[in-house]
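During the second year of the project, the team shifted from modelling isolated chains to modelling whole assemblies. The rationale, set out in the original proposal, was that interfaces cannot be judged from single-chain predictions alone. As a representative example for this report, we include one of the complexes processed in the last quarter. Its constituent sequences, exactly as entered into the pipeline, are reproduced here:
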Amino acid sequence: MRPELSDFFPVWDKLKNEERKILLESAEMRHSQAGEMIHNGSEGCEGLLCLVSGQLRAFILSEEGREISIYRLLEGDICLFSASCMMSGIQFDIFVEAEKTSSYFVIPASVYKKIMEESAVLANFTNELMAARMSYVMWLIGQILWKGFDRRLASFLLEESAMDGTDDLYITHEKIADHLGTAREVVTRMLRYFQSEGLVQLSRSHIVLKKREGLEKLAG
Amino acid sequence: MRPELSDFFPVWDKLKNEERKILLESAEMRHSQAGEMIHNGSEGCEGLLCLVSGQLRAFILSEEGREISIYRLLEGDICLFSASCMMSGIQFDIFVEAEKTSSYFVIPASVYKKIMEESAVLANFTNELMAARMSYVMWLIGQILWKGFDRRLASFLLEESAMDGTDDLYITHEKIADHLGTAREVVTRMLRYFQSEGLVQLSRSHIVLKKREGLEKLAG
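Output from the structure prediction step:
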């Protein structure tokens, strides 16, 4: 069963009738093809995205155009930072793209902000959302700083495999580099090393996980 | 003039009389010596810290005990994450220590949480605080990933110098490594390179900035 708008908000029953009505009336269902950019840094402020189906990816960009994935959004998740204009404290540019064909509700930032300003319930819920994202980002810093790239890459391959439910990954080295914030050459070199260890089998835009336990041991 | 409790909250006038009264009555002034640990990861949940004077440092720890500074708190700043028990979404362990002898108000987490649950004003203010910290952390990720260590070290020396208002920095290489999330040897090597370029002059636990414009150019 596809989630309803109310399913995204555990505090739905604590909102006022009027607030629920406004949210329901303003939320618009949209669809994006895999690869489509949904939110483009500081350009525009679409609103909150509530992902009904598919998969989204939020990432930041370096001045040189290098990417790193900040988080993935799966069915039932809410993307807050695509409504960055809602809060003056949000001073970073985030990009959101559809990784898979996706359907999602969009709640306009102005509507959500207006309700949040009056409703302690919605403001506290938003606080919790932000705290959860913050926690993930703090974890990510530790990974980048203190976990070797071999471990990060092994973790990434296992996560991809778990999300797609298969050991056959169709993804380019370039894409992996974008996820992990590094250069394509670095990914290619490490994947070749994995292959020489019998952990994966490589072919064009295709990686087969051959020895999961080896990857899991590496990922730690 | 030292800040009053109300000075920490731009929304003070929008709070109810009763809420202001509870905050004033529950806030306790505390003092810490330089080097003292104020908040210790998941142990305890002191509450919000409102820094009246001095300087605090918030950092995270790797499993191997390596540190990286997440942010610095200066006079007038509020530390939210020392009250992490307030929000279930906060799932990371942060440590807070006094970098200089410091005086600060402590608002118990339970008191703050109770008001925030009722008050949209306070909840939205807390949202903005968290968004600002999140923005800083996102910037930090970009620095770690995409800015070379020479640039990060040059920026750090200039920031230290600006904060202390002097070109004479009394800080160990170990301390700098803790700030920047790296090993002491890496700091020592780079500082020696800076010295060979005439940018700094090194002696035991003492670094003198000799060529600010050179460091600024490097910091970018």
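Helices of chain B lie at 17-26, 109-118, 120-146, 149-164, 173-180, 184-196, 212-219. Residues 148-219 of chain B form a domain with the Arc Repressor Mutant, subunit A fold (CATH 1.10.10.10).
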